[in-house]
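step 4 of 6: structure.
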Amino acid sequence: MEEHDVIIIGAGHNGLTAGVELARAGHSVLVLEKTNWPGGQAATKELFKGFKHSVGAWALLVFREEMIKYLEIDKEGFELIRPSSSFTVFGDPEDTPFIGYTDPIDLANHLLEDHGEDAMEAFSELGRYFSYFKEMFEKYIDETPPTLEEIIAAAPDEKTREILASLSYGSAIEVMRKFFKEPGKHGCILGSLSASAIDGTHMGPFTKGSALSLSYHYCAGDTYDFKIPKGGIGTLSSSLEKVFKRYGGEVQYKAQVENFIIEDGKVTGVKLRNGDELRAKAVISTLDAQSTFLRLCDTQALPTDFVSSVEDIEYTNGYIQLHLTMKSLPTFANQLEFVNGTEKSWLVAYIQSPEQLHGCWKQYQAGEVPDNPAVYCYFPSQLDSSLAPEGFHTCTIFSHYFPADIPKGQHNEMKELMVKRVLDRMETVVPNFRELIMDQVVFTQEYFEKTFGTTGGDFAQGLLHPGQMFGDRPVPGWANYETPLENLFMAGGGCHPGPGVTCIPGLNGARVVMGKIGAASKSETSQVA
Ligand SMILES: Cc1cc2nc3c(=O)[nH]c(=O)nc-3n(C[C@H](O)[C@H](O)[C@H](O)COP(=O)(O)OP(=O)(O)OC[C@H]3O[C@@H](n4cnc5c(N)ncnc54)[C@H](O)[C@@H]3O)c2cc1C
């Protein structure tokens, strides 16, 4: 039986971040990973020979750049690519596309010149409105937060309370309509915002509470400043793994944890699927709460109220991710002709309006494939030539609202229908899109559930809903990275502040563990530079 200071379950980016923080402080740390690669839901894989695709996450959004130096991944060659625009959203041919310029001046000029003064003013007022949430989010980012109700109640004045309440409990449309008052106008701008609102939720943009995900995404920056790791998203975790190992950390792949070993109410280690038992002073789970407590744990060892709260977490999240290899980059036609030969073509998204997404949401709720799905289509190799052989390209397409409740035996059929509709939509702006495709593979939430054990395939590991954020994440009263079981901690995207490739839950969780288990037992603390 082995003894470590800390065992971390999961070599996703949060598990490896926690590993770096603990190993650097001198603790002996073992990371156990079910698959045989690092990165979890943010990995880069050679799905087709010579082509690399980011499977799962692909852009850094709510990510603080100071993490790069802090986690020393710059020393392992980790680099970011900063495109001048994050997306070009298009809708109907007569609608002006919305370009998500990352430079605020470029964005303001685009809004003023292409969408009109009303759009520019509305967008900047909306930005000021969101800044209340952003300030609050940043205040609690590194600590155990109170609940949203407590945060709002403690706000300094009535105006702040009202704004925070509408950004937390209102619908995305209510918030947008405060500034973009005229229905039917600025479809691409509002469609783009609405797509952020529904991301990581089981909601439409008109659903009460959808403003919360929109506000969370806004914390990424006024223009959703997409940052792309050079070499694909997986380089974040492979770099973290190198730093971790440099500090003496160990990673075991194909090591699936079957259950916790619980003795006298304390977690003393884990049992692997192959029967091995490993002991540690502390165990950190980076899995979502239902996976952690309902699958790896004997629920008899937990308080019944806690188990009920875990059972009630909402994870329903439906989507498809389609990875393609391309003979060449496309030539865009019609309303997107202007992106040809510019960086604006690296990510185009068909998001017509909030009403379009509302229609998709209604069909999704009824278990149907949306007739008119929204489509994000990006060409990572356009920004990063290391991802594809010379002359060829990679393409990934993401679309929300692939039904979650599919009658047995119909999954493949519905997947094909969704892919058909998504590609049909792309052909409205690239008439020969299908002819450019060489290979394709389609993943839905089912793939992510089976591969990474993520409940419901929910990439948010607990949806971005009111009642599941701040002091209620993962469940009310346990936003402190601790659990009712002594020596068991949490540090994945299911924890505060939330999902996405941020490294924050991993870092916060590791610090809590260090506070609990005390100084490192190894003598050569932090000697490796
Ligand atoms: C399609 C898709 C698109 C996304 N797009 C973005 C994006 O662009 N930007 C962004 O910021 N976020 C995005 N996300 C979300 C992001 O990927 C996740 O929030 C993030 O990767 C979570 O990291 P984590 O380390 O907390 O957990 P995970 O990445 O889920 O890591 C957990 C690890 O634990 C392992 N594991 C599970 N069970 C066991 C077990 N029993 N024993 C041992 N190991 C186990 C899993 O294999 C996995 O490697 C996306 C996700 C998906 C699926």
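step 5 of 6: annotate
 - The two ends are 31 Å apart (CA to CA).
 - The mean pLDDT is 95.
step 6 of 6: archive
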